[in-house]
Amino acid sequence: MSLATDVVIIGAGPAGTLLSHALHQAGIASVVVERASRDHVLGRVRAGVLEWGTVEYLRRLGLGERMDREGHVHGGPAIAWGGRDVLTIDIHKYVGSNFMSYGQTMIQEDLYLAADRRGAEIFFEASDVELHDVTSARPSVTFSRDGERQRVEADFVVGCDGFHGVSRLTVPASVLRTYEKEYPFGWLGILSETPPLEDVVYAHHERGFALASRRNPMLSRYYVQCPLTDSVDDWPDDRFWPELLTRLGPSVAAGVVTGPSIEKSIAPLRSFVAEPMRYGNLFLAGDAAHIVPPTGAKGLNLAVSDVYYLARGFAAHYADGDDHYLDGYSDMALRRVWGAVRFSWWLTTLLHRFPDQTDFDLRAQEAELDYLASSPNAQAAMAEQYAGLPFED
Ligand code: RFL
Ligand code: PHB
After folding, report:
1. Residues 123, 125, 128, 131, CA torsion sign
2. Which one is catalytic: 112, 202, 222, 223?
3. Which residues are within 8 A (CB) of 195 and not within 5 positions of it... i.e. 6 or more apart?
4. Exactly one of 205, 264, 290, 298 is catalytic; which is it?
5. How distant, in Å, are the alpha carbons of 199, 208, 222, 309, 343 from that of 203?
6. CB 176 within 8 A of CB 25
7. What CATH number is given for 2-48+103-176+276-347 in this structure?
8. Does the first or last residue of the chain, that is N or C, have fewer Cβ atoms within 10 Å of its Cβ?
């Protein structure tokens, strides 16, 4: 089978499906090719925190109805350390915006339901996806499905296929520059059907980092830092809960309701940036181009801002033949990416226990946290970055 469209998108995660939704609203046709099944994508438990710019963009695209009903608005995240009362970084006071807890799984469901309603072409379970002629005026993508080789021809290809995808590998090594930092620990995350804390709480503790978050009024999400060599079998619930409560500290722990975990997984932490985010008529967006450690809650939000810039660029191209946004895409997106990479690295470094850390390093972290607590200027800087840097005009 052979198809023709305007834009072929590789990957039906949040970046790919949001882009196809935004393009449709601008009257631009797209086809999405996804390696996994729909249920597999929906089963991945990931992000939970949306910047206000993300919330407003989703609303503008008509995707805000369930989010506004079921999402939980916060005025700022809290930080716990040293057995003292938590410090709340008042985003509302310093930046005038909020952030929202609303799970990536729910956004993905909303996106697939919207795709069903408009009869979007998403080819799930596509294997051996290959990109061809991306520097030509008519690139194409081929893949196998139901035992048949298929081909989609388009004006542009957008790689939204995540960190392990194929799109980035199409850019020749002589063109692509990559920057990478691996952290020597992971996050063990669990979901439990228990009422969550009111706030998102980040904890610094000499035994390691911990985080309390939420999905809905009866679904909590908790994380503890763990060695990369650990597997989920090393963390039965009766080990996880006491460890979490110790790290959160007595005042936060007092509000935690424990219960059986219904999901448990370990994610490594990594910073990665690939430059440029365009090669010929191939564009990269989301995790395909950059990864941040989850500490700053930025990964999904960066995928959304990439899509915002890219959808605007394609709209100008198809409506007016104006390519200045597409030509500026890589530089503009990378400015925001590096801002978030720096912030995520800073917060990760401040809050985690590193294996080679000395007592000096630990005391320096505590001194920085004390400074943060005492300085409205430092809190304003953190608030501005946690809230999310603005989208450029
Ligand atoms: P995804 O979600 O990885 O989707 C890529 C899709 O491409 C498909 N694919 C292919 N398709 C065709 N051919 C191929 N060869 C393919 N290879 C791969 C994959 O099957 C998949 O469906 O990338 P996308 O769309 O760029 O979205 C990025 C986000 O998923 C990611 O940045 C966030 O989840 C990161 N993240 C967080 N971000 C936030 O903004 N706030 C958070 O609170 C937050 N918490 C987190 C996180 C990520 C975590 N993990 C597990 C890494 C918490 C965790 C624990
Ligand atoms: C989550 O709810 O999964 C979450 C929240 C904040 C983070 C990372 C993950 O920084």
Report:
1. positive
2. 202
3. 217, 218, 220, 257
4. 298
5. 12, 8, 11, 34, 17
6. no
7. 3.50.50.60
8. C
How far is it, in rounded angstroms, from Cα 289 to Cα 286? 6
The question of whether 386 is a catalytic residue gets the answer yes
The two three-digit tokens of residue 86, written as one number: 């938590």
Residue with tokens 């008529």: 281
Backbone angles phi, psi at 175, to 5 degrees: -100, -40
Q: What is the pTM of this model?
A: 0.97
Could you read off the pLDDT of 125-172 as tens digits, one per residue? 999 999 999 999 999 999 999 999 999 999 999 999 999 999 999 999
C-beta of residue 103 within 8 angstroms of C-beta of residue 142: no
Residue 82 in tokens: 């040293």
Say if residues 270 and 254 touch (Cβ distance below 8 Å). no
Of 381, 350, 384, whose CA–CA distance to 368 is shortest? Answer: 350
The pLDDT tens digits of the residues spanning 46-88 come to 889 999 999 999 999 999 999 999 999 999 999 999 988 899 9
What is the chain's length? 393
Return the pLDDT at 233.
Answer: 98
Distance 165 CA to ligand 1 centre (A): 11
Going from N- to C-terminal start, the domains of the chain cover 2-48+103-176+276-347
Residue 179: active-site member: no
Place of tokens 């395909």: 288
Q: How far is the CA of 212 from the centre of ligand 2 (A)?
A: 8
Distance between CA atoms of residues 224 and 232, nearest Å: 12
**Burial class of residue 132 in the structure, from the number of CB atoms within 10 Å of its CB (0-12 exposed, 13-18 middle, 19+ buried):** middle
